[in-house]
Request: fold
Amino acid sequence: SGPATATAGTNVSYPIVVTNNGLADASSVALVDVLPANTTFVSLVQNSGPSFNCTTGATINCSIATLAAGSSSSFTLTVAVSSGATGSISNTANVTSATPDGTPGNNSSTASTTITTSADVSILKTAASSVNAGTSLTYTMTVANNGPSDAQSVTWTDALPAGTTFVSENQTNGPTFNCTTGATISCSIGTLVNGASATFTVVAAVGNAIPNGTVLSNTANVSSTTADGNPANNTSTVTTTVAANADLSVTKSGPSTPTVLGFDIVYTINAANNGPTDAQNVSLTDTLPANTTFASLTQNSGPSFNCTTGATITCTIPTFANGATASFTLTVHNTNTAATTVTNTATITSSTNDPNPANNTSSASMTVLAQIPLLSPSMLLLLALALSAGAWTALRKI
Reply:
């Protein structure tokens, strides 16, 4: 006899009892059991009765010179059912003797066992706990079959989180899966045998515009057409916090030579995002120095800022992209009444973390003279020519 059902990949035990029901002793008694297909020998234990001499393997052979009338010996035969077994297995034990047997019908006994399958497939996903926006994030997936049976039609899937884009997928070990890639990765194999595992790496690009502190949640799933007694490990989720870092900078410059009381001062302001991520909620400010008044502000290049003007200039943009630059020309009226030095400072800020705040401020200093300095003869000649040209232009306008 044996169990009615057994799971592929587990052991099956058969109790075998050899009995001499006759009135006379049986001589040269032999017990033979050929193991069924899809099984391998594990053990044979004699539990009781006169001792038989046994050899084991794919075929069990046990013998005794004499089995006395009315005596019996019991055995337990254990075999391992292949993890890939399906259908049923049938095991037959036969006993013979040199002594004539008047009832040969009970010299053979067969046990049939229906094979069921169960495979505990699992997936484990790992990734770094944090990542910089504008860089790459690597996920590692390990798919395993913890048995006991082989798993059929195994598929794992992974949909990348919003704000990321697919870069690459590679299988690093294990039986070969067939994969399709993109925003959703799907890999499959016809049979993942008991105890087998496979590892994959998926690289995703993290967008420049993802705000600081955003949590990327990514879930991978595995399934099989084989029954799974432990579905809790068929899903694995990992979270990664995005750190956005944008190195903003501003440079401010003024005239290269001193100016004179009453003359306008013209400044150039250059703003840049040196990355690696987009900068959010960027603000460029410039408070005019004492004894100056606003004349004009012109944006010369770059993405359009929204500016308000007056004693303080404020220009803002919701997103200043990685690598972007912008240039402005600021003109102020010089209302100083005495010679002095005028210093003007521009500052740029953002809600995105800036790893290099040292370049977020820039100042330009200008010397204001009380009168035009004495000029060399050559400079006087140039000035005269300039004035003549100006006078000629003025005359043409009359």
Q: What stands out?
A: The first strand starts at residue 5 and ends at 7. The first helix runs from residue 377 to 397.
